[in-house]
Amino acid sequence: MLLNKISQNHPMLTEAKIFAMSPSEYMSATQLDYFKTLLENQLADIETNMSHTSEHLREKEDAADPVDRATQEEVRGLELRARDRERKHIKTIESALRRIEDGTYGYCEETGEPIGIARLIARPTTKLSIEAQERHERRERQFSN
Q1: For the chain, what are the domain ranges?
Q2: Which of 13, 27, 6 is nearest to 101 (CA)?
């Protein structure tokens, strides 16, 4: 669904074309616009999910059977946890959109080096290159032991 929204906004721009662009076009206006649309679509999807969850929570279904009630509560709990994760993800999306606006998007927060198109397509909110992320995770493991 997300890719369809992007292709509607950018009928000629695809992941393949982003990958095919020359390194000199890294974080060009075209690429930034592509990622901005991708991130904005993610925000819109989260807002839709939150709206649906609100509607589901307002629907009061009292099941007579205790097993059915327990199942309903479990489903509601799972849905609320998913929405909580998405609510937290909103902050990372908004942070990425701010980086697009201030010109730092696509560059490692730690080293200043390009993060890379493949990593950004896989995880458009990332702030670290793969190498910096691996160092960060090694430090976390080292200090958590």
Answers
A1: 2-105
A2: 27
Q: What is the pLDDT of residues 85-123, one digit of tens each?
A: 888 899 999 999 999 999 999 999 999 999 999 999 999
Tell me the pTM: 0.75
The DSSP-derived string for 64-83 is SSHHHHHHHHHHHHHHHHHH
The 10 Å Cβ neighbour count of residue 143 is 7
CA-to-CA separations, 32 to 29, 37, 88, 97, 99, in angstroms, rounded: 5, 9, 23, 10, 10
User: What is the DSSP-derived secondary structure letter of residue 23?
Assistant: G
CATH topology (fold) of 2-105: Four Helix Bundle (Hemerythrin (Met), subunit A) (1.20.120)
